[in-house]
Amino acid sequence: MNEQKESVIRTLQQGLRYDGRKEDGFREIEIKMGSVRNAEGSATVRIGETEVIAGVKMDVETPYPDTPDEGMLMVGEEFLPMANPNFELGPPRIDAIEIARVVDRGIRESKTIDVKGLCITPKEKVWSVMIDICTINDEGNLMDASALAAMAALMNTEMPSYDGEVVDYSKKSGKKLKLREVPITVTVHNIGKNFIVDPTIEEEKSSEARLTVVTLEDGRICALQKGGEKGLSIEEIMKMVDIAGEHSKKIRELLLKNAKK
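Predicted structure:
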């Protein structure tokens, strides 16, 4: 065990976090919608010093052959070098790909977007929804910050003008993107005998196992992602799910409050 991990565990044993927080607390969360003028929808999310920005672009595409009457969803995550000294330009890192897939899965499995409602002409034209997420600063917990930014951006999205032939991005249609659910993502980390949320970078490096839980307002789980080398018992998984569920209620309330501004 390295010195940093020993220090993190000692701090947690005292009921405190590495940055002075209480064991079960999130850092302050800030959500700003409409932060990118040229996107159909956008949002900037800050969790402590961690900051990400998400933008939504929409276009008319040919549907996939196996889903001829459904629109498309694509999520991409980019780790900008300015966000962390370890991030470099080039192909997406494995952890960036994982975050994009978890965000995509949470939105897709929750049926948040009415994909059939995005169909214009079956087999010929459907709307595609593309979510791009960029890191501005990484101080830990990019997973939850990215998922929250993506959801906030979707809630901010207004359909572009479309005359049946050409999409006019200079005009808004006045129609909001129809959403059915508001999934919230919370990742719980296991360090020693402790379970924490919203880890700092130091805590993430000390994490032995993590469980990302995506839940709906009624408490249903729509996605799970296990990470880390340590295995988890059924009891530990249930505890982590309960912790995630409690925090998701507070985050959803904050998100909905910002959406009404």
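Summary: The mean pLDDT is 93.
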